[in-house]
Amino acid sequence: MRNLLFILVGFIFINPLDAMYHETNINGSNPFILIARIEVKPNKVEDYLDLADFADKAVEASEPGMLFHNFDADPNNPLGFVWSEVYQNSEALIKHINNPPVQEYVQRHGQLATKFEIEVYGNLSSDAVDAVSALGVPFKHFKTTRVGYVREEYFNQ
């Protein structure tokens, strides 16, 4: 009986705290990870690497909110690649999507690749969710639970 009481008390107090946690992070001020999975058309890998290099250099020069931007090769698929990106906040993602060189990359992507899927790990503002959704590509959003932390001092400079 005593254990049941502790369980009930836990549900009463923990669930509202969990909801409060999510509410405080919906403003998009938190950092998050974006993974974009690409599959390039056969015989287009070098052309795609040139396009990715163009986009990467432009992003580095123009987006201070992009904290990490890497283009990685799939070890099991010679046509598969992954953009690994860490953003300072949701505003940085919106700026990235609206950055002219990134828009050019997205347009040219269709000529060289067959797949583009986005996964986001962490909370996003509703404006950022809308911006990614408007791209018209498959998008999966893994929202933050009450488990985990961010070393804020490294992200808010």
Structural description of this entry:
With 157 residues, this protein is α+β, with helices and mostly antiparallel strands. It has a single domain (28-154), classed as Alpha-Beta Plaits (2-Layer Sandwich), CATH 3.30.70. Helices cover 46% and strands 24% of the residues. The chain has five helices and five strands, in the order αβαββααβαβ. It has a five-stranded mixed beta sheet with strand order 2-3-1-4-5. Helix 2 packs antiparallel against helix 4 (100-112) and helix 3 (90-98) packs parallel to helix 5 (126-133). The protein is globular.
Output mean pLDDT.
88
Question: For the record, what CATH class applies?
Answer: Alpha Beta
From the helix content, strand content and strand pairing, which structural class follows? alpha+beta
The CATH architecture assignment turns out to be 2-Layer Sandwich
Biggest sheet character = 5 strands, mixed
Envelope shape: globular
- Please tally the β strands and state the result: 5
| Rg over C-alpha atoms, rounded to the nearest angstrom | 19 Å
Terminal Cα span: 51 Å
Measured as a percent range, the helix fraction is 40-55%
Query: Residue ranges: pLDDT <50 for 5 or more in a row?
Result: 4-25
Instruction: Examine the coordinates and then state which fold CATH places here, giving the name of the CATH topology.
Output: Alpha-Beta Plaits
Order of helices and strands: HEHEEHHEHE
Estimate the strand proportion. 15-25%
State the helix count. 5
Provide the number of structural domains.
1
Strand order of the largest sheet: 2-3-1-4-5
